[in-house]
């Protein structure tokens, strides 16, 4: 099992720039000539981008790193269970750049550009090099919507990846949100710290400082993604008293074994990241090869109960298709017996009857 605390050093660099085309992938030795026709077809539908820092981690094309980001011919095949908007973002967008699903919070999507295009992304129909960036007028319209909806207390900046903005634009957004008395909490969800850690420099970290409750949520799916460079980028944020949470997607061939998931959770805690969410894969088109059934995911998490500290324990969640929101789907440990009494299942699998509760 890969050590969470001392990951192996990355192999020598395979690219000096972001890999964006099938030709780039072929030159880097990440695909074969036989794959080119099918991958050119994929490229007509979905973008590719693999920054050098992430490409350097790929040992083989189908290892847990390469599998996440190297395109596959299977992506053009859509299963009947898959949906271009699997969590209903479009239907819940009152103005461009805003998604309002929950009463007390809203998503702010200032751009639809990412440093890294994951092959399982639930927004893969929307993001890409041609993905829109809110211009000044559209951004102001989105901010005005937040100003007038005083029941919103938390803004979650997502996209695309908010840390792809310039530090100047990020600072302007922070100042605008800080000027809204009803906004108490700001969250930024990002892949940048592990995908392109150099982008999260001191200037960007300074731009995130605010008097509001500010949180950075880093998307990381495998322990090897938390390189020394990634940890240094995360430390720049932590040094400014901004807590960092981790979110991951349960993915076949990436983190779907007890060993891989345990290493991922331990690596996050070692980097002072509190694991927050383990997402059930959203059924975006062409993502079937990553699917892990919910029951298997529950058994996987249950196998770690008692082995991994509670600090490292994420909430396993399902985003109900159609925009109905996230619900926890963790394995259950409390059961009602035939006599109406409660029984609890211990980490070792033994079942214990609890004393009858008062009242």
From TrEMBL:
Its cofactor is [4Fe-4S] cluster; pyridoxal 5'-phosphate. SUPFAM superfamilies: Radical SAM enzymes. The modification N6-(pyridoxal phosphate)lysine is found at residue 326. This is Lysine-2,3-aminomutase-like protein. [4Fe-4S] cluster binds at residues 114, 118, 121. Belongs to the radical SAM superfamily. KamA family. The lineage of its organism: Bacteria, Pseudomonadati, Pseudomonadota, Alphaproteobacteria, Acetobacterales. Signal peptide: none annotated. It comes from Komagataeibacter rhaeticus. Keywords: 4Fe-4S, Iron, Iron-sulfur, Isomerase, Metal-binding, Pyridoxal phosphate, S-adenosyl-L-methionine. Pfam families: LAM_C (PF12544), Radical_SAM (PF04055). One of its GO terms (molecular function) is metal ion binding. CDD domains: Radical_SAM.
């Amino acid at each position: 099992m890969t050590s969470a605390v001392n990951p192996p050093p990355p192999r020598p660099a395979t690219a000096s720039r972001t890999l964006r085309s099938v030709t780039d992938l072929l030159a880097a030795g990440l695909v074969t000539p036989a794959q080119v026709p099918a991958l050119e077809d994929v490229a007509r539908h979905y973008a590719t981008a693999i920054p050098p820092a992430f490409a350097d981690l790929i040992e083989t094309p189908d290892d847990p790193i390469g599998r996440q980001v190297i395109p596959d011919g299977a992506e053009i095949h859509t299963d009947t269970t898959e949906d271009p908007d699997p969590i209903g973002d479009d239907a819940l967008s009152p103005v461009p750049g805003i998604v309002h699903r929950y009463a007390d919070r809203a998503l702010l999507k200032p751009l639809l550009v990412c440093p890294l295009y994951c092959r399982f992304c639930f927004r893969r129909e929307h993001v890409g090099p041609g993905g829109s960036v809110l211009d000044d007028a559209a951004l102001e319209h989105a901010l005005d919507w937040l100003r007038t909806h005083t029941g919103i207390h938390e803004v979650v900046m997502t996209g695309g990846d908010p840390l792809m903005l310039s530090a100047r634009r990020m600072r302007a957004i922070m100042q605008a949100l800080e000027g809204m008395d009803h906004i108490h909490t700001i969250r930024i969800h990002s892949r940048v710290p592990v995908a392109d850690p150099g982008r999260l420099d001191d200037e960007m970290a300074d731009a995130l400082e605010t008097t509001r409750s500010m949180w950075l949520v880093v998307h990381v799916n495998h322990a090897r993604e938390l390189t020394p460079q990634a940890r240094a980028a995360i430390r720049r944020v932590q040094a400014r008293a901004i807590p960092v949470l981790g979110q991951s997607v349960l993915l076949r061939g990436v983190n779907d074994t007890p060993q891989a998931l345990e290493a991922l959770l331990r690596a996050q805690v070692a980097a002072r990241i509190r694991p927050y969410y383990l997402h059930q894969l959203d059924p975006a088109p062409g993502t079937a090869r990553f699917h892990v059934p919910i029951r298997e995911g529950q058994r996987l998490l249950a196998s770690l109960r008692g082995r991994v500290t509670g600090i490292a324990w994420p909430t396993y969640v399902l985003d109900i298709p159609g925009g109905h929101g996230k619900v926890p789907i963790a394995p259950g440990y409390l059961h009602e017996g035939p006599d109406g009494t409660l029984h609890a299942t211990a980490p070792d699998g033994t079942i214990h009857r609890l004393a009858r509760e008062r009242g």
